């Protein structure tokens, strides 16, 4: 496994384009495969997770071609055009791939087996299996229907009204996918709003989607038409540069063409509460998603904050980097209501608690969150990514303000969402 050595930075300056959005890249392949006709996806994220989605849909008989770097064509075959896979579908490290396509495969009349890497095989699947079973799906999984591998024998599905116990875009999208195959209208209600890329893209393709407050309804058996999608830069990847610019003295970065869908940008609200001033310029829309340039420079000081409740899903992937920011704020930052972090690519509460402690930060771990003492001078040394891309990148930003050398073990997992991360970060060094 690759090890990366990082030292204190003198400043991060310049213009940077983060990689394309991971969530939107996955969905563009999935929905275009279910539509009728040829779709073109521009600025597709060529990283391990979305490539798992491309592999899965090729296995399901969909011709997908890369015509230029990051430009993909998909020959969609309609809702009922997928074919039985000849082999097990390997979803790699990708929770989005396995959870979303479970909903799709539940309505397709053939057998599919879904698996993934050792991390994915420990991630909870009952959250998608339960609603799918209520719809009449024939689905079983390892460990008493809890973990991958999953076996799905497609069957006729019935529409349901489903109230989700947790806010999750993956679960919501899975049930929406199954709802496309069900008779009648399926309604899904979330406790808090999670990212809405599925609703936006499927609506643009002609699906009967209605959103009201925390509920989404989807009509069964629509005809989806092909669309061309240009994927914005990923806010979750931009978050590492935002944090880097705020934390490293003498920094100013312009982060270009970033998706600023409000269901994703809770970190910006939290940073405003922490006293950071971040400029959003050049706001516009591409492919039904709002985008902008984000301009960010070194913060004089940051204030500790309390985070809990409705805002949590809108920054669910940004907690690891927020923990690094919190270590530099005045006071104690309290994070609660974030128990979902325990079932991400790693247990992100535990991982951050252990690694922050190694860097010299005082923390207290809770079942659903963490307290982080601020104003800490970080000490570099050996740190561990746990094979989790967002932990690896968060610790890399911490290293830029730590004394001495930080040696990040198992660093190559950044490729899951951000190939070339370390090189891009180095490119901003003054
Ligand atoms: C994602 C949803 C979130 C997020 C993940 C991507 C998506 O997961 O953490 O990185 O693309 O729908 P949950 O739905 O489990 O919260």
How would you characterize this protein structure?
The chain has two domains: 214 residues, UDP-n-acetylglucosamine1-carboxyvinyl-transferase, Chain, CATH 3.65.10.10; 151 residues, UDP-n-acetylglucosamine1-carboxyvinyl-transferase, Chain. Strand 14 and strand 15 form a beta hairpin. The longest helix is centred in the first third of the chain and has 13 residues. The chain is globular, with a radius of gyration of 21 Å. It is an alpha/beta fold and 430 residues long. The strands form seven sheets. A four-stranded mixed beta sheet has the order 2-17-19-18. A four-stranded mixed beta sheet has the order 4-5-3-16. A four-stranded mixed beta sheet has the order 6-7-9-8. It has 13 helices and 25 strands. Helix 1 runs parallel beside helix 7. It binds shikimate-3-phosphate.
